[in-house]
Amino acid sequence: MNRRTFQYLSPNNGEEETDLHELAFAFFKNMNFEIAKEVILVGSSGRKYQIDMIIKDDSELDINEVLVKIVNWNRAVGVDRLIRFERMLTDLNNRKGMIISNMFSESAEKFAKRRGVIIYEKEHLQIIGE
After folding, report:
1. First vs last C-alpha separation in the chain
2. What is the dihedral of CA 37, 31, 122, 72, to 10 degrees?
3. Which CATH number covers residue 50?
4. What does the alpha-carbon distance between residue 100 and residue 93 come to, in Å, rounded to a whole number?
């Protein structure tokens, strides 16, 4: 996914507020990912997890699929949420994961970078036209 080129709209473009789930779905669909929504997966521990989306890329990139968690809060997502997400990914056989939210704390951004968790803020999902 890092090899793709993205075009962004300004976060304050005057358009009506779009639900973060809908925005993420439209973004990945526009990027030609296969998308499965609201999937239940069972971890090695036997625990069930609800995944907002699983995105798959059919190209020859080294990324097969990414589990996506959407956190639609009016406040920054902190490290605690990323730690829980990372534990879930570990229980799901060390799958690759992404969290999408309106904003992340600085410590959450540093944690994600160190631990390889992909984080996207809402403003990165706003694509210009088709």
Report:
1. 19
2. 0
3. 3.40.1350.10
4. 21
Instruction: Tell me if the pTM is above 0.70.
Output: yes
The strand pairing partners of 4, in sequence order, are: none
pLDDT score recorded for residue 123: 85
- Alpha helix (H) residue ranges in 59-120: 79-91, 106-115
For 60-112, write each residue's pLDDT tens digit: 655 578 999 999 988 999 999 999 999 999 999 989 999 999 999 999 999 99
Q: Both tokens of residue 121?
A: 């803020």
Per the structure, the count of domains in the chain is 1
122: left (phi over 0), alpha (psi -120 to 50) or beta: alpha
Domain range for 67 is 20-125
In angstroms, the CA 83 to CA 1 distance is 23
Give the span between the Cα atoms of 32 and 24, in whole angstroms.
13
72 within some domain: yes
